Amino acid sequence: MKITHILLATFILFITSCKKDDDETQNPLDALPPATQIGAQTFGCLVNGEIFLPKKFGQNSLNAFYQNMNGLYTLSISSESGEINTESQFIVIGGISVPAVEEQTYNLTSDKIGNFTGLFTDNGLNDSAQPTSDLKPGKLIITNHDTENFIISGNFEFTILDKNNKEIKVTNGRFDVKYTN
């Protein structure tokens, strides 16, 4: 009888300790902001599986710009991650002299005029990253573009190489921002 109680207690202890470990494992996607379309001033993604969120304060924490110049547009959505007074990471998505941005999917390719491109840099690394390329384009999906209220929302993902040809994967990106023009 005592052996049965000891085995039962050991089994219960084992089960509860396993459950506790499972509860402490957080899915990084749960830390990202929800995918909204209301101008909530949100931005987030995963960089090589690690959470990237804008700084809470600072000039480069989250910026969006969209402007018409003679029928061609410039779009820039940028964010800086990290705590104040620490090494920062930057992500920039946009294009110079591109057609009017609509609710559709765009390829993030080379950083030439007329293309949409993505860029990730890490101030903590000596080998800063390269922009997206024509050989391995990323995606920018505009899910909402409200030109009356200056709101743009969407999703993005891309893979780039650092100067040592090591891949940096930016995935599950989402943003919902008010832009200036």
Can you put this structure into words, describing what you see?
- The chain has 181 residues and is mainly beta.
- It has one domain (29-178).
- The chain has one helix and ten strands.
- It has one helix at residues 2-24, and strands at residues 42-47, 50-52, 62-69, 72-81, 89-98, 105-108, 116-122, 138-146, 151-161, 167-178.
- A hairpin with a 2-residue loop joins β1 and β2 (50-52).
- The N and C termini lie far apart (78 Å).
- The model is unreliable at 1-23 (pLDDT under 50).
Q: Please estimate the helix content.
A: 10-25%
- Poorly predicted runs are 1-23
Query: Can you count the beta strands?
Result: 10
Number of helices: 1
End-to-end CA span: 78 Å
**How many separate domains make up the residues?**
1
Averaged pLDDT, please?
84
Q: Strand arrangement, largest sheet?
A: 2-1-10-9-8-6
Order of helices and strands: HEEEEEEEEEE
Nearest-angstrom radius of gyration? 21 Å
Question: Helix- and strand-based class?
Answer: mainly beta
The profile of the biggest β sheet is:
6 strands, antiparallel
Q: Which outline best applies?
A: globular
Q: Strand content of the residues, in percent?
A: 35-45%
What is the oligomer described by this structure?
single chain
Give a brief outline of the structure.
With 181 residues, this protein is mainly beta. Helices cover 13% and strands 44% of the residues. The protein has one domain (29-178).
